[in-house]
Amino acid sequence: MKIITWNINGYRSITGQNPSKRYDVISNDNKLFAYMNNAKPDVICLQETKANVEQISETVRFPEGFDGEYFSAQRKGYSGVATFVKDEKNDTVRHQTGFGIEKFDAEGRVIVSHFADFSLLNVYFPNGKKDDERLQYKLDFYKSLFDYTQELREKQPNIIICGDYNTAHKPIDLARPKENEKISGFLPIEREKLDDICLLGYVDAFREFNKNAGQYSWWSNLGQARAKNIGWRIDYFFVTENLVSRLKNCYLEQNVFGSDHCPLVLEIQT
């Protein structure tokens, strides 16, 4: 099975419903569907969709041959996630929106997809850069989500948690660690949350296959950061330890454009 996670920074823009702009080039191309036609995933998990379902044109609401679930924030144009599954696999999947805590579910950040032999969480973790209140919200989200997954593991021991974690784990995971030690996204208290995930028995799938520096999934739109590869690795697949032997590959597609993030791909034997 091939599973992709991608923070698309606006569903209507990446599908061409609304014009998108990169540098000085304005485009109405459907970059998402073009990418999916080439990549041929079985499942794709999208974050930061920034749209309610009714705001999305029916012509681009689902890629051909896929069905799935949207979960939107109560605040329009903000946050949101979507999970698309190939039609032949979707019949056996049960999708769940949110994880039962209203202050987090109101922001449309989690879809849990229960497959026959594993559960897949598509998560858009909060950003803590705005102020101390949002940082605390982010930390509380981490704790509450992983409290939920610990309960879930009692019923389903095979768990995959993918998405935009909004945190770089180690110095190798961003281009300028020293300069960002006091910036949300690389604060010690945030990085400890990823340490905690590992202690719970989750494995960073990407690092099972790639130990190199310079591997980033997000770049600022300022100062030609992407062209210079001044980025952060903040998008992950964390899998329970018992799934590691079934991993075939996990890799970034840094040459795929359409967002300030790039896709991350997991290939796993199911």
What is the compact description of this entry?
This protein has 270 residues and is α+β, with helices and mostly antiparallel strands. It contains six helices and 16 strands.
| Domain module count | 1
CATH topology grouping: Deoxyribonuclease I, Chain A
Q: Please state the average pLDDT score.
A: 96
Strand order of the largest sheet: 5-6-4-1-16-15
Question: What gross morphology would you assign?
Answer: globular
CATH architect. name: 4-Layer Sandwich
CATH H-level superfamily title: Endonuclease/exonuclease/phosphatase
Instruction: Label the structural class.
Output: alpha+beta
Give start-end ranges of low-pLDDT stretches.
none
- Please report the total strand number as a whole number: 16
In angstroms, what is the radius of gyration? Answer: 17 Å
Instruction: Estimate percent helicity.
Output: 10-25%
Give the helix/strand layout:
Layout: E1 2-7, H1 11-14, E2 20-22, E3 25-27, H2 31-39, E4 43-47, E5 66-71, E6 81-86, H3 87-90, E7 94-97, H4 102-105, E8 110-114, E9 119-124, H5 132-155, E10 159-164, H6 188-199, E11 202-204, E12 218-219, E13 231-232, E14 235-240, E15 247-252, E16 264-268
Parallel strand pairs: 1-4, 9-10
Antiparallel strand pairs: 1-16, 2-3, 4-6, 5-6, 7-8, 8-9, 10-14, 11-14, 12-13, 15-16
Keywords:
270 residues; six-stranded mixed beta sheet; alpha+beta
What does this structure look like?
- The chain is of the alpha+beta class.
- The protein has a single domain, classed as 4-Layer Sandwich (Deoxyribonuclease I, Chain A), CATH 3.60.10.
- Helices cover 21% and strands 27% of the residues.
- α5 links the parallel β9 and β10 (159-164).
- α5 (132-155) runs parallel beside α6 (188-199).
- The protein is globular.
